[in-house]
Amino acid sequence: MTIIEQIIANHSGQQSVKPGDIVDVTIDTRAARDFGGANVVKNLLDNGLTIADPQKTIFTFDCNPGGSDQKYAANQHYCRQYARENGIRVYDVDAGIGTHLAIDNGFTWPGSTFVSTDSHANIMGAIAAFGQGMGDQDIAAAWAKGAVWFKVPASVKINLNGNRPSDVTAKDIVLNLLSIFGANKLLGYSVEIYGEESEKFTLAERITIASMGTEMGAIIILFPTSTALLQELKFITGMDYQPVTADADAQYDKVFDIDLSKFVTMVAKPGHPHDDTSIESVRNQKIDSGFIGSCTNGRIEDLRAAAKVLRGRKVAPGVVLKIVPATDAIWTQAMDEGIIQTFKEAGVLVSNAGCAGCAAGQVGQNGPGEVTISTGNRNFEGKQGKGFVYLASPAVVAASAVAGFITTPDQIPDKPTLFYASGNRDASRVTRDEKIKVRKPTVVEGNVWIIPKDDIDTDMIFHNRYLTITDVKDMGQYTFDNLRGFEDFAKKAKPGDIVITQKNFGAGSSRQQAVDCFLSLGITCILAESYGAIYERNAINAALPILTYKPEIIALAEIQHGDKVNVDFVSGVLTNLRNGKTVQLEKFYDAQLAIYQNGGLL
């Protein structure tokens, strides 16, 4: 078996598992964040569910550690009260990013399982553990049952061959991989990375690469353990762990051989993490701000790399550089090593540990028109504010902040480029109070909306500025208002309509609202060539019918925008009522049908 198959088999009472098997996976640690945590609690209370094992259950308040938004503050307090009543540990606003806390505190370990409302919980692949981001209902079920249903993914192997160039960082490696595989070529796969150089990767480097598996559409990126990694984990946690590797005869769906020696310093251009280019093509692009941190680049190694560049220098006038360590322990270590002092002398804003700009709840956001260079994992339009975000390594971000434009540490000018930042942030928020459960027939008819786009992410479907809305009936009005060309979808869509789109629909975050907004509008079903892994689970669990189809199907049925079609979820047959043509979709599988007929997972 592959690594993912071994872990799932070991946690589901099976001798072996294979791709496509659906099993209940016991979860060693079950987490919820301040974003999503309140809805997890509400799901539990609304369904009369209790906690299976409080010792394996934690809250992590990392999205808005300052509680600076009133709705976040209210949700955090609500979770604290529930935690007190049920003996659940809270890693509060002074702790840091939950996934990093789980690794550093030994809540997850090689071969273990971990779930969270964090879509980057698959960061656990850095230590050969199973980690998954999941929606509110999934996490509620995990807390109540101690296990979740899961479909075993197929695995692919990536061999990184050749020597690693001296100026190529872990962030450059993952951006090079994104430029090769894009957002959907690894969609739904468990990825294992091998190679002589990859065995030398530190924990921080593995974390950087594993974290952005979500942006590739992968279920997880797994690194087999090395002796050096196990020693590093023992130094951090004080615990001895056993090696985790794939079987010698493990079966992979695909194997890719990639020449690491050809990798270069890269940046991702604004809009998509996979829209990557050599830094030479954007060198001298002026910036207004920089951000160093996130679950991808907030480790002590990342802070040291930034400090090396900033030591004895100043951030350019008019530029704002914000740095946020991943955990409070890392913050303290940076202070002990004099790194925080270096940052302050350079004119950096250093914030308390947490997710920062990625979660739209702490420092790191930008204003309209503002150009930011960031170490975050996402730069979807509107994700980190209303400006434009380039992604790069900590050293490149630090160098660019000193120069006033995108550059590398070896090409920082004597005098920075001067300019003035512009724009204002808009952080309006509202709360979501209840969930609508809608049961639908297994055969439906509706008028078609054709949205011919790949990689429609959850920020395009339901923007993060609306994430504190908790009343489902209020969500529909914001559907697709961040998808260019379809901003008026919610005003024109009618109950019973059917959405047909393309590859990797629902890429990105674990937000349940990106599913619930369609339920709010009364959309009958969604047809896509493929879905983001977390989105697919959220839709199935919320009883929103989703089906997949082969690309040629639309042409075969001659489906046009506005056509009325009939869709049978059980048989998978679609009929275009305008011309009578029928085609075959992928029908509901048994688990999906069972959840749908139950009115949802809970």
Q: What do these coordinates show?
A:
The protein has 602 residues and is α/β, with parallel strands linked by helices. The protein folds into 3 domains: 3-260, Aconitase, domain 3, CATH 3.30.499; 266-411, Aconitase, domain 3, CATH 3.30.499.10; 432-597, Aconitase, domain 4. The chain has 18 helices and 27 strands. A 7-stranded mixed sheet has the order 24-23-22-20-25-26-27, covered by helices on one side. Strands 4-3-2-5-6 form a 5-stranded parallel sheet, with helices on both faces. A 5-stranded parallel sheet has the order 16-15-14-17-18, with helices on one face. The chain is globular, with a radius of gyration of 23 Å. The model is unreliable at 424-438 (pLDDT under 50).
Number of domains in the coordinates?
A: 3
**What is the oligomeric state here?**
single chain
Largest sheet: 7 strands, mixed
Say which CATH homologous superfamily of the largest domain is assigned.
Answer: Aconitase, domain 3
In terms of DSSP E residues, the strand content is 15-25%
- N- to C-terminal separation? 32 Å
Contiguous uncertain segments of 5+ residues: 424-438
- What's the total number of strands? 27
Return the average pLDDT rounded to an integer: 92
Helix content: 25-40%
Overall geometric form: globular
